[in-house]
Amino acid sequence: MKLELGLIHVTDLQFGDVSKVEDHVVYINQEDIKNLILEDETIESVELHIAKPGESVRITPVKDVVEPRVKVSGNGGVFPGWTHKVDRVGEGRTHVLKGMACMTIGKIVGFQEGIIDMTGEGAKYTPFSQTLNFIMDIKPIEGLKQHDYEKAVRTANLKVSTFIGELARNVEPDEIEVYEHDNVLEGMKKYPDLPRVGYVLMLQSQGLLHDTYVYGVDAKQSLTTIIGPTELFDGAIVSGNCVSACDKNPTYIHENNPVITELLKEHGKTLNFVGVIITNENVYLADKMRSSDWSAKLCEFLGLDGAVISQEGFGNPDTDLIMNCRKIEAVGVKTVLITDEYAGQDGASQSLADATPEADAVVTGGNANVVIHLPKLDKVIGYTEYVDKIAGGWSGSLQPDGSIIAELQVITSATNEQGFNKLSAR
Amino acid sequence: MIIVTNNPDVKEKYEGIRQIEFVEGGYKDVLIRVRDLIFEGHELLTHPLMGSVKPNETPYRSIAVSRHAGKMDNDNAIMIAECMQTFEKFAAMGRRDRGRNTPEWLLEDFRYIDLTLISSAVDYH
Question: What is the domain range of residue B91?
């Protein structure tokens, strides 16, 4: 299976009379976007904003971030099950508007999170301070229940990202990245001496504001299964997860999954990348048992030597992570875990809510409890009155001078557990 | 199944459908009651730390255990002990008032999230 990603480097993002991509600049006609979003009868109104790297702008509370893409050849369309019919993706060519991101904000529930600062201390911690951001502030009709509001916001972003991605269909890419992987049999024949490595991608699936969708299917209703690595690059996995800003995986990160990207780059060189196993993180303990049993079975069926396991979220997903680790190790497959830590503000406490001796190779995305001080910025897109209520904020977080003292966990993707974040020990 | 909860919305939705044990108290009191039920041999059905809403943020918690009580499950006993440790860790961080001085509109949202999380677990079973 081969997918070419045609990267179009976006140098500027502007509102304009006509929506188009020209000379690396994306122009957006506001009416085009508003009409698209307001097709949904549950949405009352929408305000659109642009924020650029270096500007004195704070965006909060951020729901999801999506990278606009378009499928120019090969089967299916981006975000199958959402903006295109359910059809297999991951082959052919996809154009990517690299350097921009579409993000949604909105008051779904009171305790919300996700701060993106475009400059200053906070900008250091989020990858989305480096992107040209198109922001949609979506308000629901009166009386809309929170779960319907979340769905409306999620769907709106996918529609808008598909629309903007479509503008890049006939643009000549600046760069082509080629990602190729073999089926199990080919890989085994071509690279008999390389270690067989798989990736176990854990998806948040606990319920409202904590869900993930695969080809439109709610992951909590799915057994652990296998997905082609390049399918993610076409938006096969979509985030409906609005909480735990620092360690959730926005759709953007699924589209750019760094573990998959690196494993594909190493395929045939240092390892044989056999495949991606997706497994959920449900609340029901029997589901956890079943899903982790299945992860281990699939690792065993694929004859893996090693597996990278990445987590999403904190708390009860720690149990899924540890169950996956223990069971996969028990079938003779070595594991490396990617997680993050809630080790207290001084870093001295136990990092995870669960542990096992087999978890002896662990990569951390950082300590989410570290306290940071974000300066007052000139402009706020969204609602800072929520800062006192979000995870990692507390009464008094929002200072009288407009600055914010809070834990790192308030920052979108600060301790991302796929390694898409900016913290490093190097 | 028995749903141990301090969330009135959960009580309201499941009263008459599921066995409810309503706890007058906080998050920790729910954990303590579930721990005792585990000690009595009830099986833990849902993870006590469900949701990414941290124990020092929401005052509400709902946990499902089996109606049947048999021999105590050691793994369950370890899990609830670890969850209580995690609760204490977050409680020691202070911060949120866990219900005290929290405005009603925010409590409403905490109740709603707790309800939807426990519903997404128990409605399938």
Answer: 2-122
Distance (Å, whole) CA A406 – CA A372? 6
User: Residue A201 has which token pair?
Assistant: 């991608």
Q: Which two tokens stand for residue A62?
A: 């951020």
Q: How confident is the model at residue B97 (pLDDT cuts 50, 70, 90)?
A: very low
Report which DSSP code applies to A173. Answer: P
User: First vs last Cα of chain B: how many Å apart?
Assistant: 9
- List for chain A the helix, strand, coil content (%; round to 5): 25, 35, 40
What pLDDT, on a 0 to 100 scale, did the predictor assign at position A395?
63
B/e letters for A46-80, b = 16+ CB within 10 Å, e = fewer, are bebbbbbeebebbbbbbbbbbbbbbbbebebbbbb
| Listed residue (A267, A300, A244) closest to A417, CA to CA | A244
- Residue B98's pLDDT is what? 47
Interface test with A, best of B9, B47, B114 (most A CBs within 10 A): B47
Do the beta carbons of residue A415 and residue A368 sit within 8 Å? yes
Contact A392, A408 (CB under 8 A): yes
Q: What does the pLDDT look like over B16-28, one tens digit per residue?
A: 999 999 999 999 9
The pLDDT tens digits for A406-419 are 889 999 999 999 99
- Asked if pLDDT for residue A110 goes beyond 80, the answer is no
Contact predicate B21/B42, CB 8 Å: no
Cβ contact B53–A243 (<8 Å): yes
Cα A3 to chain centroid distance, Å, stands at 20
Between the CA of residue B119 and those of A245, B50, B123, what are the distances in Å? 23, 12, 5
* Residues A9-30 pLDDT 10s: 999 999 999 999 999 999 999 9
Cross-chain Cβ contact B121/A350 below 8 Å: no
Give the start-end residues of each E strand in A219-344. Answer: 225-227, 237-241, 272-281, 306-310, 334-341
**What does the block give as tokens for A396?**
């008094």
Residues constituting chain B = 125
Nearest CA in chain A to B90: A344
Mean pLDDT of chain A: 94
The predicted pLDDT at position A240 comes to 94
Q: How many domains does chain B have?
A: 1
